[in-house]
User: Fold this.
Amino acid sequence: MKRFVKKVIIFLIVLMPVWLVFPIVADPYNVFHTARIRDNGVEPAKNYIKMSYITANPDKFDAFIFGSSRVGALHPEKIEGVNCYNMTYSVGLPTEHLDNLKTMYAAGVKPQKVYVGVDVGTYTNDAKTHLNDPIRMPYEYAKSHPLEFIEIYVDSAKAFRSVPTVLKHEASEKMVDVFYERGWSIDYSWKNMEKDAYVTESTGEAPDFMDQMDIQLNAISEMKELLEKNGAELIVFTLPMHEVTWRASVKRFEYKEFLKRLGEVTPYYDFGGMNEITNDTSKYVDPSHFNAEVGDMMIEIFNGGEPHEDGFGVLVGL
Assistant:
């Protein structure tokens, strides 16, 4: 019996360090490699990594694009007059953008302009669900809750489950370079959907969405006040959801009410509704994400171009 106990103790002494060190070395979500992530096939914890990078380099950029993964199609190097970075992260919400901006200012980052993309997902998702999500955990929460950070990321079971994904993934150095140079995630080379492809609704989780609407509109209002106080400009814009999602958003989630109230908070560029872009499935890489060419069309309007005749890019709320 003593021999058995001794063997168990030796086994644990050998195994435990491996069990604790492996998730840090493997680091599927790249939270322990924020200065130089690895393209491993697992979606990185973008909020945490990008905020770590920006706060460590406070003078690198003077403008930022905030939003969910859908703003990943905007290539900020094409925005004129500023050195812009795309902060896109999964299901990014205004409350999280507001916290990020406060953190940026505290770190000495001084944006001139901040672009914020919104759509029905802005208020049909709940930021509280991101607190224990390894992909979506916000930077500020991770920094202020170290035990929760360890519980989520120093997890050997998660790390071992990521091994098959990592082994079959073909890494791209370009992805890593772009992550730090500009932050966008949807390239021009991405294949578009077939023009007549069937598109399903993509409208978020919808937890008490009217309450969430209040919360997120208040966050946008506070962002505007914070930026104006610091001599910076807020540019809000709606994202061109595919017409199927747009119709469902109006019918089920009071999207027109959201737009009405948004216009009372701040002027915004409207790229949504029924128009030539949102009616064309080939302008999307999947049912939730428009392509980089559409992103360029939006940036042209940010740069002073005229809105399209069908209303794509019209300024609302003045």
Summary: The two ends are 81 Å apart (CA to CA). The first helix runs from residue 2 to 26.
